[in-house]
Amino acid sequence: MMTKNDVEKFRIDKWLHAARFFKTRSLAADAVERGKVQINGMRVKPSKTVATGDKLMIRIGPYQYEIEVLALSNKRSSATEAQKLYQETDESRKAREKLTEQIKVQSQQFYTKGRPTKRDRREIERFRNQE
């Protein structure tokens, strides 16, 4: 029979590493420390324990994930196993997909191949001289 003290504790930094949101536990701990991870809308420390049913908000770069914890684990395993630990909300997934498309469109607008050609350089010079 297990008592309350025998239940294993699952730290948020270890869980984030096991769920494959961060490559290392130290990166996960840094993100939690800098306020990039919130549990149930509150900023927490890396040692905070996580429980099933908790709502997490995780910011990684420009992306934001809103997830619900479904299972607990401290061990990092395959990506398919890690996805069973949480469920992302539909709004979060749609917002991330929309942001991905916007970033893709913006990067295509400013993409150029290497150095400008002689013709391009002449056009640049004409443009600068007009100012």
From TrEMBL:
InterPro entries xref list: HSP15, S4_RNA-bd, S4_RNA-bd_sf
GO MF, one example: DNA binding
Residue ranges, compositional bias (Basic and acidic residues): 90-101, 120-131
Keywords from the named record: DNA-binding, RNA-binding, Stress response
Signal peptide per UniProt: none
One annotated GO biological process: cellular response to heat
Gene3D superfamilies named in the record: RNA-binding S4 domain
PROSITE patterns, per database record: S4
Pfam families associated with the record: S4 (PF01479)
Region Disordered, annotated ranges: 79-131
Keyword RNA-binding: yes
Family (UniProt): Belongs to the HSP15 family.
Identification of the protein by name: Heat shock protein Hsp15
